[in-house]
Design a protein that fits this description.
Elements lengths: L12 E3 L11 E3 L5 E5 L2 E6 L4 E7 L5 E6 L15 E6 L3 E6 L4 E7 L7 E4 L9 E6 L3 E6 L5 E6 L4 E6 L7 E5 L2 E5 L13 E5 L6 H4 L8 H11 L4 E2 L15 E4 L6 E5 L3 E6 L4 E7 L7 E6 L5 E6 L4 E6 L14 E6 L11 E6 L6 E6 L4 E10 L12 E2 L3 E2 L2 E2 L12 H4 L18 E12 L8 E4 L14 E5 L4 E6 L4 E7 L5 E6 L4 E7 L10 E7 L4 E4 L11 E6 L5 E6 L5 E4 L4 E5 L9 E8 L1 H19 L2 H6 L2 H18 L4 E7 L5 E7 L2 E8 L8 E7 L2 E6 L3 E6 L4 E6 L5 E6 L7 E6 L2 E6 L4 E7 L8 E8 L2 E6 L4 E5 L26 H12 L27 H11 L2 H23 L7 H6 L18 H18 L3 H13 L3 H8 L9 H13 L4 H16 L3 H10 L3 H10 L3 H11 L2 H16 L6 H10 ...
Antiparallel strand pairs: 1-60, 2-3, 3-4, 4-5, 6-7, 7-8, 8-9, 10-11, 11-12, 12-13, 14-15, 15-16, 16-17, 17-18, 19-20, 20-21, 21-22, 23-24, 24-25, 25-26, 27-28, 28-29, 29-33, 30-33, 31-32, 34-35, 35-36, 36-37, 38-39, 39-40, 40-41, 42-43, 43-44, 44-45, 46-47, 47-48, 48-49, 50-51, 51-52, 52-53, ...
Helix pairs in contact: 4-6, 8-9, 9-20, 9-22, 11-12, 12-13, 13-14, 15-16, 16-17, 17-18, 17-19, 18-19, 19-20, 21-22, 22-23, 23-24, 23-25, 24-25
C-alpha cells in the first residue's frame, strides 16, 4: 500500500488517460534524464527511474504533436545553470518553450496554423544554445531563438517537408525527408538561411524488390533467401524522378543519420531498413523482415555502438547489432545487423497499439515504449555472461568491452556492466583486426527487463466521486481518495496526494453510472446495462470495501429486468440510502443493516431531483442517552467507591459505551427533499424504520423542470433544465432566482468545510463556482472559450479545489478559479524521491557537482553529503576518470561526457606509451610523436578522434564494401579515387581498367592507370606532377590535384591545400589516413585553431581534437580561457600540469558555492596569487589550518609537455 501523509493542501494536478493519434510522435527522452510526452493538449513529464509523472504542462489549446528537450552540451555555472527546458509544438502551429520546473512558458511562437512538422535544438555551435529549428508545413523551415521567440531566418522548399535529420559529425549537413524524396543540404548555418535549394535525390520504392514477390527458397535458411533477393535490387537512390508506375507511394517512414559512423544514413520502410553510404549514395546494408515477420514502425540508431533499436507493430522492441566482419571467412558482402535481443510484445487491439519508443541518450541501454492507451513501458537492457542458449543460430558471439574509460579491465575486476551500452558490449570488429585473445573477455548475452510501467486512465466517460472530507475526527487516518467509475465497469481509486493509482477494482460488467461513499474506506457504485426491447435493463448496485476489496450486491437478488436506476443518494450520517429509478417508485434502504426499509407505492410521484438534509437529531439523542447512562452509573457505584474512582474515568467509560451504542442502536432522524415533474417540493422524514410525509411546497412559476438540488446549512439551491438557479435561505425564508442562460443544470455540489458556502455547478458546456452567501458567480469555464474539452463530471476534492473529468480522457484537480495550470515541481508530494539535479536551485546543483567531482582535500572519497558541512571540514578525495565519466552521465552533461570519454582514453594511452619509451629523452617531438598503443581504441563514432591505425583500417573496410556494392561507372570512379587517396594503388588500377571503351572517360582512365603504375620517386617526374597538381588546384580542380599529390607522397601539401580552400573535414580525414603522427598532428592543430576562430566558434570540438593529440596542457589553458572550470581543473588534476590561474578561479567558484575547505585547497596550489584568497577565507580564525598547507600534491607520473 502507498504510504501517505495527511496533506490537506492537495497540489493541482492532471491525471491523464489515452493518447490522441496526433500525439503519436510527441515523445522525447532528454539528456536531463526525463521523458516528455504529449497527451492531447497537455505534456507529461515522466521520471523513468521511479516511473512516476512529476509534472503536467498545460497551455496548448490544440493536440501536442512534437516535444524536444534542449541539449545539455554547454558549460554550466551560476550564470548558465542546469535548467529543464522543453520545446513543444502543437497541431495549430504554436511552439511553446517551457521552464519545466516552474511549469511556466519562456516564450510562445506562432508562424502558420498547420501542425508543426519537426523540431530540433541546434547543438553544434558554442555561440548560443537557444536556437530552435522547426518545420512549419507545408514547406518552410524556420530558425527561432527559443529564449526570446524571435525569428532568425526562414527558408521555403519546393516539396512538402515531412521531417529532417542533422549529420551528427558535420553541423553544416542536414537531410530533409520530403513527400517525393530526400533533399541534402550542405550549407546549413545558424547565421543565414541555406543558399541553395539543396541536392534532390529520389527514392525508388524498395517494394519492387523480389523479397516481397517470391518466397524465399525453402532449402536455404530464410534470412539468406531474403538477402539474395535483395542483392538484386542495387540502386535505390536516383537523381532522376522515378516514373509514376515505379513509385506509387513513398512509404519511407523515417530517415536518420547514423551517429555511430560518419556519412551513413538509414531509411526505414515497413518491411526493411536500408543503410546507405552517402559518399556513394548506395545501399550497403539491408535489414529485411521475412514474410511472416512483424513490420517496423520506428528505428533509433545508437551512437555508442553500431546498433539499432527497432520498434515493431506488435510493440516488440528489438536490438540489432552490426556483425563483426572479422569472424566471416568469405569476403564481406554487406553490413549485417544481427538480432541480439527482443522484449515481449503487447496485445494489439483496435484501440491499443504502440506509438513510439525513445531510448536514454546518455546510456543507450534503456527504452521506453509509449502505447496509445496511455501506458508507458520502461524496458532496460541487461547483459549477462554466458554462452548462447542455442548455438545453432549461427550468430557470432558478442564480447564484453576490453576497457572502461581507457583503463583496461582486469579479469578480477567487478563487472562495470549495465552502466551503458558501450560498457555492456565491445566494439564491432572490422576486417584486419585480430580477435582479442585476453582471457577476461567474456561472451555476453543481452536481454530486456521491464523495470517500470505507468498506466493512464481508460477511455471516457467517467463518473467521479471524492471520499468524505477531512475532519478533526478522521485527521489521523485520512487519505484523499478519488473514486473513478469507468465505461468498462471497473472503479479506479486514486490517491490525490501522490496522483498515483491506489486500487483498481473490477466491480461491474457494464458502464459505471455513479458512486457514493458510505465511509472513508467503502463506497456504493451502480451500473446499468443496455436496455432490451421492453426498455428494461439489468441494474447492478455494489457495496465495495476498499481495504479488503470485497464487493457484494447491495440489493441482493433484485436488479434484473427493471427500469434503470437514475441516481443513488446517501444520507449525511451514512445511515440511509435512496435509490431513484426512471419509471418506478424509489426505494429506501438502511445502509448499516443492508435492509430495504420502504418501497414506495405505485402512485408515488416521479422524482426529478433529490437531496438529503444536513440537519438531524443525533446530538439530542446522544444527550438523552448520556443522561440515562449517568443515572445508571450513579445507582451502581456506592458512595464510598465513588470518591476513590476518579470521575473522569467514569466519564471515559461512559463515553466509550455511548460510542458503541450509537454505532449499533441509535437511529437518528434524517430528512430528504425531492421534486416531481411539476416542480412541487416534497419533504420526507426517516427515523429507524418509520417514514413520514412532511410539508409540500408548491412549484415556483419562474423555474422549469427541476434537474438537481443541493442543501447545506440553511441554504437550499435548485437548478432546472433551462439554466435557472434558485437560492433558498431557509432561516430568513427568502428565495432568489437567477437565470444563468447556460442551459441544463446537470449537477450542483456544495464545497466541504464548516461555513464554506461555495457551490460548484455543472452545465452541458462547462462549469461555474458560485458563492451562495453573496449569491454571485466566482469563476466560470466554458468549452470553446477558455478550454477545448467537454466536462463529464464534477466534484470538490478539498474546500478550495475542484476535480473535473473531461472528454479528452483526463481528470484535473484545479484551483477554485478553474484555470488549467501547471504546478511547480518542488511543491509536490512524490511517493519515490526523484534524482534530478535540474530540480535543485542552481547553486545547490553546482555545489553537489563540485562535491562529487573532485574531493582531493582528504584521503577517502565519500558519497555522504550529510558529512559535508558546506563551510566546515570535509574528509574526501577523488577517484579520477571513471568518476568524472559517471558524473557527467549522472548530470546528463552531454559535452562533459564526450570530453571525458576522449580525455580519459587518451590520458591512459599516452601514459602507457610513455612508460614504453621512458628511456628516451623527454621533449616535444618525443611526447607527441609517440602514438598511443592502448589495448582498446575509441569506437568509430568518435570519427577523426580515433587512433590513426584503427581509423585507417575502418576506411579500408568501408572502401572494400563500397567496391562490392558499386553498380555504375560513377560508383566505380568514386571507389578508385578513394583507393588512390588511401594508397591502395594496385586495386585502384584494376578499377580504372574496368572502364568500357564506349565511355567518354575511357582514354583518361587508361592514362591514369598507366600513370599510377609507373610513378617512380625520381626527382623530375615528382616535380612535374607537383607542378601539374598545383596548377589543377589553382584552376578549380581541387580533388584531382589532391589525388596527384597523394600519388607522389605529398599528402601533407595536399592537406594544406584542402585547408586553404576550406575543406577542413576532408583535410583531417586525409591526414589521419596518409600522414605520419607528427605531420598529422600539425594538420589537426591547424584545424583546431580554425574551429576556435570567431566565425566558426566550435571550441568544444577543437578541445576534443587537441585531446586526441595529447596536448593536455593546451586544453587546460583553453578550458580556463572560456571558463569551463570543472573540466579544466579535473583535467589538470589528471594530466597534472598545474595552471595557477585556473586553480585560483576554481577556488573562487567553490568559495561562492560555500565549499570553503575545497576552495582553500585549490587556493593553496595557486601559488602567490592564492595566498590572498587564503587569507580572506580564514581571516579572523588565527591562520590557515595545517592540514591544507601540509597537503602533498599527488603525482600521476604523467607530464605531457607541449
Amino acid at each position: 500500500m502507498i504510504p501517505y501523509t495527511v496533506n490537506i493542501k492537495l497540489a493541482a494536478r492532471t491525471l491523464t488517460g489515452t493518447l490522441n493519434l496526433q500525439n503519436k510522435t510527441a515523445v522525447d527522452w532528454g539528456w536531463q534524464g526525463l521523458i516528455a510526452q504529449g497527451c492531447h493538449s497537455s505534456i507529461l513529464i515522466i521520471d523513468p527511474k521511479t516511473a512516476q509523472t512529476i509534472q503536467v504542462l498545460e497551455r496548448h489549446k490544440a493536440n501536442v504533436v512534437k516535444v524536444k528537450w534542449s541539449r545539455e552540451n554547454y558549460y554550466h555555472n551560476l550564470s548558465s545553470p542546469y535548467c529543464l527546458r522543453l520545446a513543444s509544438g502543437d497541431a495549430s502551429g504554436k511552439i511553446i518553450v517551457w521552464d519545466v520546473v516552474s511549469g511556466t512558458a519562456h516564450c510562445e511562437i506562432q508562424e502558420h496554423s498547420k501542425p508543426i512538422g519537426d523540431l530540433e535544438w541546434l547543438w553544434n555551435q558554442d555561440a548560443s544554445r537557444d536556437l530552435l529549428l522547426a518545420v512549419h508545413p507545408p514547406n518552410y523551415i524556420v530558425l527561432w531563438n527559443g529564449d526570446t521567440g524571435t525569428k532568425l531566418w526562414k527558408k521555403s522548399y519546393a516539396e512538402n517537408i515531412l521531417s529532417f535529420s542533422f549529420d551528427p559529425f558535420d553541423p553544416s549537413n542536414m537531410a530533409l525527408l520530403t513527400s517525393e524524396g530526400i533533399v541534402f543540404i550542405t550549407d546549413f548555418s545558424y547565421s543565414k538561411p541555406p543558399g541553395s535549394a539543396g541536392k534532390k535525390v529520389y527514392i525508388a520504392s524498395p517494394h519492387a524488390s523480389p523479397a516481397h514477390t517470391k518466397p524465399a527458397p525453402a532449402t536455404a535458411p530464410a534470412p539468406t533467401g531474403a538477402k539474395k533477393a535483395l542483392n538484386k535490387v542495387k540502386v535505390l537512390i536516383t537523381n532522376e524522378k522515378p516514373t509514376a508506375e515505379a513509385v506509387t507511394l513513398n512509404d519511407c517512414l523515417q530517415l536518420s543519420y547514423l551517429p555511430s559512423k560518419r556519412n551513413h544514413m538509414l531509411l526505414l520502410y515497413p518491411r526493411e531498413i536500408l543503410i546507405l553510404d552517402l559518399e556513394l549514395s548506395q545501399t550497403v546494408g539491408v535489414v529485411a523482415i521475412e514474410r511472416s515477420g512483424v513490420p517496423f514502425i520506428q528505428v533509433i540508431p545508437c551512437a555508442q555502438r553500431d546498433a539499432l533499436y527497432c520498434l515493431h507493430e506488435n510493440g516488440c522492441i528489438t536490438l540489432r547489432v552490426c556483425r563483426s566482419t572479422v569472424a566471416t571467412e568469405e569476403s564481406v558482402q554487406e553490413l549485417v545487423y544481427d538480432l541480439r535481443s527482443q522484449c515481449d510484445a503487447i496485445r494489439v487491439t483496435k484501440t491499443v497499439r504502440p506509438y513510439r519508443m525513445v531510448i536514454c541518450p546518455v546510456n543507450e541501454n534503456k527504452a521506453a515504449l509509449m502505447v496509445s492507451d496511455g501506458r508507458a513501458m520502461l524496458w532496460e537492457l541487461r547483459a549477462h555472461t554466458g554462452k548462447a542458449a542455442n548455438p545453432s543460430s549461427g550468430l557470432s558471439p558478442l564480447y564484453s568491452p576490453v576497457s572502461f574509460c581507457g583503463a583496461p579491465l582486469g579479469p578480477n575486476q567487478k563487472k562495470i556492466q549495465d552502466l551503458s551500452l558501450n560498457s555492456m558490449i565491445g566494439q564491432t570488429l572490422i576486417a584486419g583486426e585480430t580477435l582479442p585473445t585476453s582471457s577476461h573477455q567474456q561472451e555476453v548475452q543481452l536481454k530486456f527487463l521491464l523495470t517500470g510501467l505507468l498506466s493512464g486512465l481508460p477511455l471516457p466517460p467517467f463518473a467521479i466521486r471524492m471520499c468524505p472530507p477531512l475532519t478533526t475526527k478522521n485527521i489521523n487516518h485520512y487519505q484523499p481518495l478519488l473514486a473513478v467509475g469507468t465505461s468498462n465497469g471497473s472503479v479506479l481509486v486514486y490517491n490525490l496526494t501522490s496522483g498515483l493509482l491506489h486500487k483498481e477494482l473490477s466491480v461491474h460488467s457494464c458502464e459505471v453510472r455513479g458512486i457514493e461513499w458510505v465511509s472513508l474506506t467503502s463506497f456504493l457504485s451502480f451500473a446499468t446495462s443496455a436496455p432490451n426491447n421492453m426498455g428494461l435493463v439489468r441494474n447492478e448496485l455494489q457495496h465495495v470495501d476498499l481495504p479488503t476489496g470485497r464487493c457484494f450486491a447491495f440489493r441482493g437478488e433484485r436488479g434484473n429486468d427493471e427500469p434503470p436506476i437514475e441516481m443513488i443518494k446517501v444520507s449525511h450520517l451514512k445511515q440511509y440510502l435512496v435509490v431513484v429509478f426512471r419509471d418506478k417508485p424509489l426505494e429506501l434502504w438502511d445502509i448499516r443493516t443492508g435492509t430495504l426499509l420502504r418501497e414506495m407505492a405505485k402512485n408515488f410521484p416521479t422524482v426529478t431531483a433529490l437531496e438529503w438534509s444536513p440537519s438531524h437529531n443525533l446530538k439530542s439523542l446522544k444527550k438523552k442517552q448520556m443522561a440515562a447512562r449517568e443515572a445508571m452509573a450513579r445507582q451502581t457505584v456506592s458512595d464510598a467507591e465513588q470518591s476513590s474512582v476518579e470521575s473522569s474515568v467514569i466519564s471515559l467509560l461512559q463515553d466509550a459505551e455511548s460510542k458503541s451504542e450509537t454505532s449499533q442502536a441509535i437511529s437518528a432522524r434524517e430528512h430528504f427533499v425531492f421534486t416531481d415533474t411539476d416542480g412541487q417540493v416534497y419533504h420526507i422524514t426517516v427515523e429507524g424504520n418509520t417514514v413520514k410525509d412532511g410539508a409540500r411546497i408548491p412549484p415556483d412559476g419562474s423555474m422549469g423542470s427541476i434537474a438537481c438540488i443541493a442543501w447545506k446549512g440553511d441554504t437550499l439551491v435548485l437548478g432546472d433544465v433551462d439554466g435557472n438557479l434558485n437560492f433558498w435561505d431557509l432561516k430568513a425564508r427568502l428565495s432568489r432566482g437567477i437565470p444563468t442562460h447556460r442551459g441544463w443544470v446537470k449537477k450542483i455540489r456544495f464545497a466541504p468545510g464548516k461555513g464554506n458556502q461555495k457551490l460548484l455547478v455543472m452545465y452541458t458546456d462547462g462549469a461555474e463556482v458560485w458563492d451562495t452567501k453573496e449569491v454571485q458567480m466566482v469563476s466560470s469555464m466554458r468549452i470553446g472559450r477558455n478550454v477545448n474539452y467537454r466536462i463529464l463530471d464534477i466534484d470538490w476534492c478539498t474546500s478550495d479545489k475542484v476535480v473535473l473529468a473531461s472528454d479528452d480522457g483526463c481528470i484535473r484537480v484545479l484551483e477554485m478559479a478553474m484555470k488549467s495550470a501547471s504546478y511547480r515541481m518542488d511543491e509536490q508530494d512524490l511517493t519515490d524521491p526523484v534524482w534530478c539535479p535540474y530540480l535543485l536551485l542552481p547553486r545547490a546543483a553546482l555545489t553537489l557537482k563540485a562535491f562529487l567531482l573532485l574531493q582531493p582535500w582528504s584521503g577517502t572519497f565519500t558519497m555522504d553529503v550529510t558529512q559535508v558541512d558546506y563551510s566546515e571540514k570535509d574528509e574526501i578525495k577523488g577517484l579520477i576518470q571513471e568518476q568524472l565519466n559517471s558524473l557527467s552521465k549522472l548530470f546528463g552533461d552531454e559535452s562533459d561526457l564526450h570530453f571525458w570519454t576522449v580525455a580519459s582514453h587518451y590520458i591512459q594511452s599516452f601514459a602507457q606509451a610513455r612508460q614504453l619509451t621512458v628511456s628516451a629523452a623527454e621533449g616535444q617531438a618525443q611526447s607527441e610523436g609517440v602514438q598511443p598503443s592502448p589495448q582498446s581504441h575509441l569506437d568509430i563514432c568518435h570519427d577523426v578522434l580515433c587512433e590513426t591505425s584503427y581509423f585507417q583500417k575502418f576506411q579500408l573496410d568501408r572502401v572494400h564494401l563500397q567496391e562490392v556494392k558499386r553498380s555504375s561507372y560513377e560508383h566505380t570512379k568514386k571507389c578508385a579515387d578513394q583507393l588512390l587517396l588511401l594508397g591502395q594503388t594496385d586495386r585502384a588500377v584494376q578499377l580504372l581498367l574496368e572502364t568500357s571503351a564506349d565511355n567518354p572517360s575511357y582514354y583518361c582512365d587508361s592514362l591514369k592507370a598507366c600513370l599510377v603504375t609507373t610513378i617512380t620517386s625520381s626527382g623530375p617526374s615528382q616535380s612535374t606532377i607537383k607542378l601539374v597538381a598545383t596548377n589543377m588546384i589553382a584552376n578549380g580542380k581541387l580533388a584531382e590535384g589532391v589525388q596527384l599529390l597523394c600519388l607522389i607522397d605529398k599528402a601533407a601539401d595536399a592537406c594544406r591545400y584542402l585547408q586553404t580552400y576550406g575543406e577542413w573535414n576532408r583535410a583531417a580525414w586525409l591526414a589521419k589516413v596518409r600522414l605520419n603522427p607528427a605531420e598529422s598532428s600539425d594538420v589537426l592543430k591547424r584545424w583546431a585553431e580554425h574551429l576556435c576562430s570567431p566565425q566558426v566558434n566550435h571550441k568544444s570540438k577543437a578541445i576534443l581534437v587537441l585531446l586526441s593529440l595529447g596536448c593536455f596542457y593546451k586544453v587546460g589553458e583553453m578550458l580556463h580561457s572560456f571558463k569551463s572550470l570543472c573540466c579544466g581543473i579535473s583535467l589538470t588534476h589528471c594530466a597534472h600540469k598545474l595552471i595557477e590561474a585556473a586553480f585560483l578561479d576554481y577556488a573562487r567558484l567553490l568559495r561562492t558555492l560555500g565549499l570553503r575547505e575545497g576552495a582553500a585547497l585549490w587556493a593553496s596550489r595557486a601559488g602567490s596569487a592564492g595566498e590572498q584568497l587564503m587569507e580572506e577565507l580564514f581571516q579572523g580564525e588565527g591562520g590557515i589550518p595545517e592540514a591544507i598547507l601540509g597537503e602533498e600534491v599527488v603525482e600521476l607520473g604523467l607530464e605531457s609537455k607541449e
